[in-house]
Amino acid sequence: MTSIFNMFGKSPIKPIEEHMSVVACCVEELTAFFKAVFAGEWQEAEVVQQKISALEHDADKIKRDVRTNLPRKMFTSIDRGDLLALFLEQDLLANRAKDIAGIILGRRIVFPEHMIPSFMIYLDRSIDATFQARKAINELDELQEVGFSGKEVRIVEHMIAQLEMIEHETDVLQIQLRRTLQALENEWPPVDMMFLYRIVEWVGDLADQAQKVGSRLQVLLAS
Question: Per CATH, which fold does 2-222 belong to?
Fold first, then answer.
């Protein structure tokens, strides 16, 4: 127990907030990555991809340290299993960001020009979902101080409701992008089209996964 507290302070939930901060930074780098890709600046895209990979590695290190050092029995109201499950949901966000950058850079995927503006709106909204999840996670300290009750719980519940709204918006945007791709299927190489569909899906996964972080936080609120 001393080891984990020395790393992150007295609160066992500090590592969660630290981890989510790194994860959000990892996802945020996708904006710079896609801007480089759309400009055809593949060297710059590779630099950003390496940043994403490094941040994902940092998030993994925090997760491994917690798994190793988090005590089996904690003197808190938070269940150890719930904490580790929350870590996993957060970690999948960084993994997906790394997947997106890796597959685009590896295949040098080119996007239809007229699709780029709507895609960037979609990407930005998916990143917003990650930021909203981080905002809610950052309330964990306050939640613990008040024993997961009272006004603070209602504040976090409102944040989670906003997160769900953002995720729904990304669902709508994804449908529109799929329709755009469908209209181009006869003009675009089939293999490239397959990967474009996959990228659209994976960017949507960011918002979906952020919502899962919110859902996991709701489990803590109810426990």
Answer: Methane Monooxygenase Hydroxylase; Chain G, domain 1 (1.20.58)
